[in-house]
Amino acid sequence: MTSLPNRTSLRAPVRAIAFDLDGTLVDSAADLMHASNALLAELGRPPVDLPAVRSFIGDGVAKLVERVLAATGGLPGAEETAAHTRRFLAIYEADPSAHSALYPGVAETLTALSAAGLKLGVCTNKPMAATRRLLADLGIADRFTAVVGGDSFPTRKPSPEPVLGLLALMDIRPEETVFVGDNEHDVAAARAAGVARVLVLRYGYARVPLESLPHDGILERFGALTGALSAASAC
């Protein structure tokens, strides 16, 4: 792990870890690309490639669809864009895991953390239906005490509302929590929610340099999380 100096001290024992989903637990870009290209084919537009889709991820489905449309011929009016977003969701939610996979070390690390007595939760901007299906299909749904999606609350990350909502469902205080994500919205939401420690993963979908974010450490791989938590507890 490459760390910055701690910006927040752990004043209470860590009892829970909250995770982002896309770019943190799951590489879902290929399924999002396939759904995008199915929509674009229906509209008679050219397809988008995987690097483009990776750069579009992170702000929820509506923003993803807007970016896909803007990149392939322009953004239509609000009503038409909303209709295209609904169609994208219908395509994507029919099978959100066909081409998605857990990042290396995710399943084993989640099992170890749960066995250690930590409560685990997911806070994602992905809609709940697709989130629950994806977690189930990839075999990790039972690891989590609570899950919130992009349609669970009036606002999404970078708002702190979904993070605080998740912690309320878990009956956990922010100062007892570590948040693990991959991009600037995860850091902003967790910081605004007052969580004790914020860690980011190098391999995710961030659109800004991770070193520029006010995090507490960068993880090069998911399996490094257990060591990072042990080091923090020793401080």
From TrEMBL:
Mg(2+) binds at D20, D22, D182. It catalyses: 2-phosphoglycolate + H2O = glycolate + phosphate. One of its GO terms (cellular component) is cytosol. Its cofactor is Mg(2+). One of its GO terms (molecular function) is metal ion binding. Pathway: Organic acid metabolism; glycolate biosynthesis; glycolate from 2-phosphoglycolate: step 1/1. The active site is at D20 (nucleophile). Coiled coil: none annotated. Pfam families: HAD_2 (PF13419). Its EC number is 3.1.3.18. Keywords: Carbohydrate metabolism, Hydrolase, Magnesium, Metal-binding, Plasmid. One of its GO terms (biological process) is DNA repair. The keyword Hydrolase applies. Specifically catalyzes the dephosphorylation of 2-phosphoglycolate. Is involved in the dissimilation of the intracellular 2-phosphoglycolate formed during the DNA repair of 3'-phosphoglycolate ends, a major class of DNA lesions induced by oxidative stress. Belongs to the HAD-like hydrolase superfamily. CbbY/CbbZ/Gph/YieH family. NCBIfam families: HAD-SF-IA-v1 (TIGR01549), HAD-SF-IA-v3 (TIGR01509), PGP_bact (TIGR01449). This is Phosphoglycolate phosphatase. It comes from Azospirillum brasilense.
